[in-house]
Amino acid sequence: MSSVKVEFRINTKSTNEVYIVGSVPQLGSWDVKKAIKLEKNDAGIFTVSKLLATGQLVEFKVLADKDWARVEKGVYNEEIQNHIIAPEKGLIVELDVARFNK
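Predicted structure:
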């Protein structure tokens, strides 16, 4: 399996820190202590790039802290299903996160 760079871009006004955690070791294998911190760019978007293997589906969640109690929520505070991507060359994952569990 080859690996490709996948860029994550998370837009949110609900927190000053953003993390992602997911189903593969590069995203912490669902261990929030290993969640990946994103950096805020000049446009106010949180970003990070990770090398992920092609040929497999990757699931992930967005967090406001390294804690499941701070997982992303929908506009009406509803649960958000895992995000699922298929890594491929040039993939940019862009998400708007309305709020986080408090």
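Summary: The longest strand covers residues 3-11.
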